[in-house]
Amino acid sequence: MLIKFSSEQSADFVMLHVAAEQLLSMMGHGGSTEGSVSGEALNSALSSLTSTIESEPEAPAYDNVDEQDSADDWQEDDVGEEPEPVTVSARAAPLVNMLRKAKEADGYVMWRPE
Q: pLDDT tens digits, the chain, 114 residues: what are they?
């Protein structure tokens, strides 16, 4: 399942459910595949997400290697090199940018299953 993030201040983007759920939990909105933040909740969500990322900037995006493999859906090439793990900070970058732009414009960020 995909989760679509939307805001009037940024382009929409989608994430796999596993990645989105992890980031939503860091924002304090875990367990909700549909929702929105605005106003003071937007400030709180951005603060929670960025502080969690800053405490572990190079942490892998998933604790379970099987989740990482299925979420990234990479294809092994002829050489057989292993892909580099995606960090939480890299995975969260589009959402952090969207939250910041929405905060600056006193806007909102919404998410829902796609």
A: 999 999 999 999 999 999 999 999 999 998 888 999 999 999 999 999 999 998 876 766 655 545 545 555 555 555 566 777 888 889 999 999 999 999 999 999 999 998
What φ, ψ does residue 111 adopt, rounded to 5°?
-145, 150
The secondary structure element, H or E, covering residue 3 is strand 2-7
DSSP single-letter state for residue 62: -
In Å, what is the CA distance from 109 to each residue of 20, 29, 54, 77, 88? 13, 12, 21, 38, 20
Return the closest-CA partner of residue 5 out of 106, 105, 104, 91: 91
DSSP 8-state assignment for residue 108:
E
Residue 14's alpha-carbon distances to 1, 3, 40, in angstroms, are 10, 5, 24
Q: Provide the residue type at 28 as one letter.
A: G
> pTM of the predicted model, to two decimals?
0.79
